[in-house]
Amino acid sequence: GNSVTQMEGPVTLSEEAFLTINCTYTATGYPSLFWYVQYPGEGLQLLLKATKADDKGSNKGFEATYRKETTSFHLEKGSVQVSDSAVYFCARLTSGTYKYIFGTGTRLKVLA
Amino acid sequence: DAGVIQSPRHEVTEMGQEVTLRCKPISGHDYLFWYRQTMMRGLELLIYFNNNVPIDDSGMPEDRFSAKMPNASFSTLKIQPSEPRDSAVYFCASSLAQGLHNEQFFGPGTRLTVL
């Protein structure tokens, strides 16, 4: 079936450390892939997206590349800040519908 | 634009009571989504509307839950009667149909506690 699997948290890093949050998907066809971020007490907001294989989404220093061969869309950032502390959700858009399938979320905590 | 507006932000009620959550989507958006977020189950899509018409309600947990969208600027999610297991954060989101790669804009959520 169609699903999204992301690494369990929490992930705790020191400021300026390198971040990777893994995300893999199963799907028929070629879904669009997204990373959403949820800051404390707020709703989710789009961080970046990629709509086809080999596309790289980027925003605010975060990047993710759509890898069809490994069905992955891992989120990376070279140097995290305390303000990046949040929950990150990987998501895919089911082909032919407007239904997102979200991963379970990964909580990131960045220490000063 | 003020973004997606939800009310109330917090609701505490007793088991058996009726609960109504409200949402005002971003003006001009033609898709509206209701989600539920819990620690155990993560983020679940309950129902979504297109042009005020429910398209997919397969995520609505049971008959105690109902959702309406009487016009393009207002939607409600009602739980009657409420149960403690309904305690969660309920999010409303809206989007604009322009192909299949659309961002959903989320409201701040309503934190529901059923005692």
Describe the protein's architecture and organization.
The complex is a heterodimer of chains A (112) and B (115). Chain A has 112 residues and is mainly β. Helix content of chain A is 0%, strand content 51%. Chain A has no helices and 12 strands. In chain A, the strands form 3 sheets. In chain A, strands 2, 5, 6, 10, 11 and 12 form a 6-stranded mixed β-sheet that branches. A 4-stranded antiparallel β-sheet of chain A has the order 3-9-8-7, with no helix packed on it. The model of chain A has no long low-confidence stretch (mean pLDDT 91). Chain B is built from no helices and 11 strands. In chain B, the strands form 2 sheets. In chain B, strands 2, 4, 5, 6, 9, 10 and 11 form a 7-stranded mixed β-sheet that branches. In chain B, strands 1-3-8-7 form a 4-stranded antiparallel β-sheet, with no helix packed on it.
Summarize the structure.
By secondary structure, chain A is an all-beta fold. In chain A, 0% of the residues lie in helices and 51% in strands. Chain A is globular.
N-end to C-end Cα span of chain B: 36 Å
Helices and strands of chain B, in order, run as EEEEEEEEEEE
| Main sheet properties of chain A | 6 strands, mixed
Low confidence ranges of chain A: none
Taking the sheet with the most strands of chain B, its summary is:
7 strands, mixed
Helices of chain A, by number, come to: 0
| Structural classification of chain B | mainly beta
**Mean pLDDT rating of chain A:** 91
Q: How large is the count of helical segments of chain B? A: 0
Oligomer: heterodimer
Biggest interface: A-B, 21 and 24 residues
- The coarse silhouette of chain B is globular
- Share of helix of chain B, binned: under 10%
Order of helices and strands of chain A: EEEEEEEEEEEE
Question: What is the helix content of chain A?
Answer: under 10%
Identify low-pLDDT runs of chain B. Answer: none
Overall geometry of chain A:
globular
Distance between the termini of chain A: 41 Å
